[in-house]
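Email to the structure team, subject: Coiled-coil domain containing 137 model.

Hi all, the expression group asked for a predicted structure before they design truncation constructs. Nothing fancy, just the tokens so they can compare against earlier work. One-line instruction: predict Coiled-coil domain containing 137, return tokens.
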Amino acid sequence: KEKKKVNCKPKNQDEQEIPFRLREIMRSRQEMKNPISNKKRKKAAQVTFRKTLEKEAKGVEPDIAVPKFKQRKGESDGAYMQRMHQEAQHVLFLSKNQVPRQPEVQAAPTERSEQKKAKKAFQRRRLDKVQRKKEEKAADRLEQELLRDTVTFGEVVLQPPELTVRPRRSVSKDQPGRRSQMLRMLLSPSAVSQPLTASLARQRIVGEERERAMQAYRVLKQRRRLLHGERPHLTSRKKPEPQP
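Reply from the structure team: attached below.
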């Protein structure tokens, strides 16, 4: 196959050829003036027949097209009547051989319709998930806006904020200048010492311990008294007599 020559110099310098684009325009205009050739008419009929076979193979029969009659240019009356008769006979033949339809019977759902339903259900779940995420983000944003403390321009703070509610999981610590809880309980007027009821054995043991402590205290006091009484004799010394 020879390649088309583009932008080549003319064979004869004295003659100028018609440009390719202009030749294409002239050819298309000539084809529009001439009637359709038999070859193109056969090709169009084959395409229509192939489409009809494909639709019948799919199981869906199209509605029979109602022909519209119009006398062509240059067509005689006899030819026009004959063409109308042939097309009417063709329509009658198609209507007789057509499968009877039952429009009142609901067609069974096909696989394609099931796929569409599954796709719609998936899209609905996806939209619900996206909507849920948007609502969660909006709730978080609103919570942050509520917890944010807006400080106006020129505002002066003289002391730190005071907490009116004790936060959870907080450890209480003694603050300077405040009395402890035990001292507060002792100084309160309702703090009255109540005697504890002990058993007889414990009372006896406590009594013996008290007596032993009192005896030891007496001995210690007596020793101190003796030491204070003997100290002048131990510490007194004789002064040396002057020699003559």
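Residues 232-236 have pLDDT under 50 and may be disordered. The radius of gyration is 62 Å. Ping us if the truncation boundaries need rechecking.
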